[in-house]
Amino acid sequence: MTGDMVRTRTTERRQVAALPWRRVGSGIEILLVTSRETRRWVTPKGGRMPGKTDAEAAALEALEEAGVEGVTTGEPLGTFRYLKILKRRAPRWCVVAVYALEVHVQHDDWHERAQRERIWVSRDEAVRRVDEPDLKALIAAFNG
Questions:
Q1: What pTM, to 2 d.p., does this model score?
Q2: Which of 31, 66, 71, 87 pairs with 39 at a CA distance of 20 to 30 A?
Q3: pLDDT per residue over 87-120, tens digit each?
C-alpha cells in the first residue's frame, strides 16, 4: 500500500447524508439546510452510527437537522467529498454516502431548529445553492 493510500484512510472521515425530497405536481423538491458554522446550504449529514445501517443513520440526521421523516433508499445514490472546516480544529476531508429520503412528515419543531434554516427548492435551485461539485451532480441526476 502506498503512503498516499494509508494517509487517505486515516485522514478521511466517513459520513452519511440524507437527500430529503418530495413530489410536487409533476416534479420534485429537495430540502436543504444550512450548516451550523459556515451557514452554507447542505444536505443533512453526520457520522455513521453503531447499531444503525447507514440509511438509518442518514434518516436520523434528517430528523435532527431538518425535522423531517420518511423512507430512505437501501443503497446510496452515490458519494461526495468535502473539506470539513471547524473553528477549533484542523480541516478534515470527509467522504459522504448519500441516501434519498422521501419525506412523509415535516415537524414544525425539531432538535436543531434554532441552529439551522431549512428550505424546499426545485432540483435546479438545489444544484445552484450547494457548493460541493459531486453533491451538485448527485442532485442534478436525482429524479425521485
A1: 0.88
A2: 71
A3: 787 888 999 999 999 999 999 999 999 999 999 9
Runs of H (alpha helix) within 1-100: 3-11, 54-66
C-alpha dist (Å) from residue 3 to 6, 8, 10, 75, 89: 5, 9, 11, 31, 24
Spatial distance between the Cα atoms of 66 and 113, rounded to a whole number of angstroms: 7
DSSP string, 79-143: EEEEEE--TTS--EEEEEEEEEEEEEEE-SS-TTTTT--EEEEEHHHHHHHB--HHHHHHHHH--
**Average pLDDT taken over every residue of the chain:** 90
Number of Cα atoms under 13 Å in the Cβ half of residue 51: 1
Q: What is the CA radius of gyration of the chain?
A: 15
What is the spatial distance between Cα 123 and Cα 39, in angstroms, rounded to a whole number?
Answer: 20
Q: Is 8 helix (H, G, I), strand (E, B) or coil?
A: helix
Q: Alpha-carbon distance 68 to 63, whole Å?
A: 5
**8-state DSSP, 69:** E
How far apart are alpha carbons 85 and 99 in whole angstroms? 23
